Amino acid sequence: MTAQASATSISIQVNGNVSNASVDPGLLLADFIRDTLGLTGTKVGCETGQCGACTVLLDGVSVKSCTVLAAQAEGSEVTTIEGLAKDGELTPLQEAFWDNHAVQCGYCTPAMVLALTDLLAQNAKPSEAEIRIWLDGIMCRCGVYQNAIRAVQAVANPSETQGGS
Amino acid sequence: MASGMFGAAVKRREDPNLLTGDAKFTADIDLPGQVHMAVLHSPHAHATIKNIDTSAAAQMPGVVRIVTGVDIAEKMMRLPVIMNPGGQEAHFPPHPYGLPGAQTALATDRVRYVGEWIAVVLADTREQAYAAVAAIDVAYEPLPIVTTAEDALKEGAPQLHEAVPGNLCMHVEYGDKAAAQQAVDSAEVVVKQKIHIPRQIHSAVETRGTIAKYDPATGEYTLWTNTQIPHGNRFMIANLVLGLPYNKLRVIAPNIGGAFGSKGYLYQDAPLTLLLAKEVGRPIKWVDTREGLFRSTVHARGQDAYVTIAGSRDGKISSLMVTNYADLGAYSATNGPGTPTILTGRSVTGSYVIPHPFYEAYLAHANTVMLGPARGAGRMEAELIMERAIEMYAREIGMDSAEIRKKNFPAPDQFPFENGLGWTYDSGNYEGALNRALEMVGYDQVGARKTEARQRGKRLGVGIASYTTIAGVGPSGRMGKEGLIGSTWASAILRIHQTGDATLITGCQPHGQGQVTTFSQIVAEELGVPMERVEVIHSDTLGVPYAQGSYGSRSFSVEGTAAYLAAQEIKQKAMKVGAHMLEASEADVVFEDGKVQVKGVPSKSKTLQEVAQALWFAWDLPPGVDPGLESTTYFDPADFNYPFGSHVAVVEIDELTGAVDVVRYVCVDDVGNVANPQIVDGQMHGSIGFGIGPALMEEVVYDDQGHLVTESFRTYAVPRPSQLPTYELDRTVTPTPLNPMGAKGAGDISQPGVAPAVVNAVCDALSDLGVRHLDIPVTPEKIWRVLQGSGVQA
Predict the structure, then answer these.
(1) How many angstroms separate the CA atoms of B589 and B566, rounded?
(2) Which residues on A lie below 8 Å from B207 (Cβ)?
(3) Which terminus of chain A is less hemmed in, N or C, by CB atoms within 10 Å?
(4) Count of C-beta atoms within a 10 Å radius of residue B710
(5) Which residues of chain B have a CB within 8 Å of the CB of A144?
(6) Could you give the count of Cα atoms lying within 13 Å of B661 in the half-sphere of its Cβ?
(7) So what's the pLDDT on residue B111?
(8) Which residues contact B412 (CB under 8 A, 6 or more apart)?
(9) Reduced DSSP (H G I as helix, E B as strand, rest coil) percent helix, strand, coil of chain A, to 5
């Protein structure tokens, strides 16, 4: 939206692949992922950091990619939702989302799965209250939170929880 | 029922693509050569447009075209209004076809709300388009502003439309006013209260968007847009806005990131992008911003109800009288007038036998965004009115409100029950659901828990709401009488291929409710075809001949019934041909486990696949049997269905801050028979969050200049998980007699109970301070003022 600034060269590893690109310094990481790389699993809902739909992992930490410039991610590793399932095999958390009906319209699902992947990496057995606070950054208007919590608990305590409604 | 699929909590077939990010939503689609569209919105709530200067913007990099209202005035008709309940009087700007009219796609000489579309820019990139929008120079002359219905209807108020004298769009009355007034006048107890229900914004996480393409070689237009009503869009765009050949317009709804009613309209972007795609010879992509959406996609609720409830000292209600004011916004949305009229008006008596009810509503235009339905449309407003009224009545006569509810419920043998305002409830056991909810919450221990909470500095309150919600839209003739220009029947085309695979073409429009799964369950149950071999086609006007889409909790009980009936037709034909193949008489075969079998001789059977192959090859068919195994079935229900339930909220209020914590939320809902309990529970979770939001925090605020203060998620609060309790769900099962599956609607039917349960709990917690009523949202500030002794509402 501003006058053309000179392009900047970046090198970002996305889902294991190194991407070299020349980008506008004002380009958001979210737009770089979606428009430059065509990885549309990362969603955009507000472009101002409130809804969290654009969450990705930046060097393993969940961030809202509309609040990060592509240029700031120079030299980093980014994981998007496309980078989670390997050879079509869902991760245990994705499986648990499926088992526990933690998906409705699916628009916030990639963000929720990535954010909770980060949570479980930091805290293998989060409490319900910790999961709720962690998910406060991701708006889900369909209201799947309760089932998303059960999905996390199913991964954290596989012997104690079960699927079904 | 053979396979046990109906009633099973099977995992959703939709989920893998959504979990891996492979699923495509509107914004994820790009077409070669596309240009991006950006919109210039009015910054004024009411003003004359003196001049629009696009010369500087036109010189900006990448700009392909700038379009203003005068450029398209001769090419696009005003948007139509297709829901006109009429009533005592109704006034609209005229649509050229004699229909009621809504807004024009772009304003020409005058703007009437902040956010109204004035111009669009087409440019090579989205950034370039928005940069050029900022360079358009518009000269305005501000006009006087009005932002509420009641103010708009006052004498001397600023006038919005020449065709709408006094800003009165519509006045409706339901019920016998004189009889209701007489019942009030002669009642032992009369309680009156004004109830303000603020506007709510649907806040789907995905904004709206449109991609339009024109192919000059074929003359075909294609539109991808996140609409709940693809065929409704096709009809209105082709016939009522652009005047295109209907069969040259294809509308496709890709995956939709939540809708909740906000995407069930025709908005101007769809016809405008189609028109301009042809003119500039390139596909056009438009994806709204969050701020753009808040300013020009519909809002919901927004009523000011004057409520009178009358009854006896021993708890029998004799009358409910409601005079309601609703601001439809500066123009009607395409189905805007339906909500404050029939949906609230005919539903306002809720779950009770009220001998003399009366409802009237005045629908006005003010300088605000258009109003439309949201999840729980009109019925949340109705239940808030009724469930607050019964609560105040209970306090007035000093009777437990659960007891009063039971005294006034229709008994299970009173169904079908006519509510006096135009709805006939199909079936119910209201006391059963309430008793179960009270048992779950431990209603008899409330007193002790209040005492315990006070020792912790908390005020505990318990609130009940017993709701009855119209669902299963609907009987087409009835909807026509209510003012819908359109129909609401269901359709299914079910084809069993020679491989035994099935294709189901359905008229519903899934946007998160899991119909691909539940409809596959119906086919699997009835025909024994494995779910994963049922392909479900929907939401594309090329593949689906004509259909009604999804809204008003209609998918499963209406469209699903069409699928069920199609499966019965398939079964009948398969049995006829299977008997022929087995050299048995038709009377001697049955359809079981996906096979045509000779009764009592399971070894003598033909699989559905074998029968289908015989029918598609058609080498040896019985006389009079046509080749092929498919059914086209329509289902026009005899009436709506009426799910019901009881919710109980337990809140704790912090005595220092006034903050409300919903500590328990118990609900017992009855949607008749359930195909997939996990999916229905998920719908209930969604409805509860969508009700706790407006109960505690959601509220659209306009300032006195008509500026939308709550213009983004920075200022409009939506509940987050740490603000929500763990929901406790149960169900009773009262099947409807109106469809063979006995299923009622489930998508938005429990939402109306939520806000009243929460606000009843808050009022209960504060009742000893003289609080009889608080308007939603019951914010900490509002409660803190009560606790300080200054905020008791009149």
Answers:
(1) 20
(2) 45
(3) N
(4) 19
(5) 682, 685-686
(6) 13
(7) 98
(8) B428, B429, B432, B734
(9) 35, 20, 50
Q: Are residues B673 and B694 in the same domain?
A: yes
* HEC secondary structure over B510-522: CCCCCHHHHHHHH
Number of neighbours of residue A68 by Cβ within 10 angstroms: 20
Which among A47, A155, A41, A46 is positioned nearest to A106, based on CA atoms?
A: A41
Cα B187 vs. chain centroid, distance in angstroms?
37
Q: State the pTM of this model.
A: 0.97
> Tokens 């509510």 correspond to what residue?
B419
Domain count, chain B: 4
Taking residues A53-77, what's their average pLDDT?
98
Q: Residue B424's CB: how many other CB atoms inside 10 A?
A: 12
CB B409 within 8 A of CB B353: yes
Q: Name the minimum distance, in Å, from the CA of A125 to any CA of chain B.
A: 18
- Interchain CB distance below 8 Å, A50 and B25: no
Q: What dihedral do alpha carbons B784, B785, B786, B791 form, nearest 10°?
A: -160
Alpha helices (H) along B59-176: 69-72, 126-134, 149-152
Q: Are residues B224 and B333 in the same domain?
A: no
What residue of B is the nearest CA neighbor of A140?
Answer: B205
Report how far residue B563's alpha carbon sits from residue B6's, in angstroms, rounded to the nearest whole number: 13
Residue A160 clears pLDDT 80, i.e. is over it: no
Q: Give me the residue label for tokens 């763990």.
A: B726
Cross-strand partners of B752: none
Residue B165 neighbours by CB distance under 10 Å: 10
Cα angle B609, B610, B614; round to 5: 115
* pLDDT tens-place string over residues B262-317: 999 999 999 999 999 999 999 999 999 999 999 999 999 999 999 999 999 999 99
- Are B158 and B264 members of one domain? no
Q: How far apart are CA B277 and CA B88, in angstroms?
A: 43
Burial class (CB in 10 A: 0-12, 13-18, 19+), B581: middle
Contacts of B43 (CB under 8 A, 6+ apart): B114
- B695, amino acid identity: A
Under 8 Å between Cβ of B554 and B488? yes
CA separation for the pair B759, B651 (Å, rounded):
9
Residue B203 near residue B301 (C-beta atoms within 8 A):
no
Are A56 and A65 in contact, with CB atoms under 8 Å apart?
Answer: yes
User: How big is chain A, counted in residues?
Assistant: 165
**Beta-strand pair B356-364/B317-327:** parallel
Domains and CATH numbers, chain A: 8-83 (3.10.20.30), 92-156 (1.10.150.120)
Query: Among the three residues B355, B384, B408, which one is the final residue of a domain in this structure?
Result: B408
Mean pLDDT across B567-584: 98
User: Which residues are within 8 A (CB) of B577 and not within 5 positions of it... i.e. 6 or more apart?
Assistant: B596, B611, B614, B615, B621, B622, B625
Which residues, listed in sequence order, are joined to residue B249 by a DSSP beta bridge? B221
Q: Are strands B644-654 and B660-670 parallel, antiparallel or unpaired?
A: antiparallel
Chain A residue with Cα closest to B134: A1
Confidence of residue B793 (pLDDT cuts 50, 70, 90): low
Measured between alpha carbons, how far is B83 from B243 in angstroms, rounded to an integer? 20
Q: Do B185 and B309 share a domain, yes or no?
A: yes
Range of the domain at B346: 144-199+300-408
Report the DSSP beta bridge partners of residue B635: B490
One domain, residues B332 and B428? no
Q: CA distances (Å), B358 to each of B187, B220, B380, in order?
A: 15, 51, 18
A141 and B205 within 8 Å at the Cβ level: the answer is yes
Chain B partners of A34 at a C-beta cutoff of 8 Å? Answer: 28
Cross-chain Cβ contact B18/A103 below 8 Å: yes
Integer Rg of chain A from CA:
16
- From the candidates A43, A142, A162, which should be mutated to test the interface with B, based on the most B CB atoms within 10 A? A142
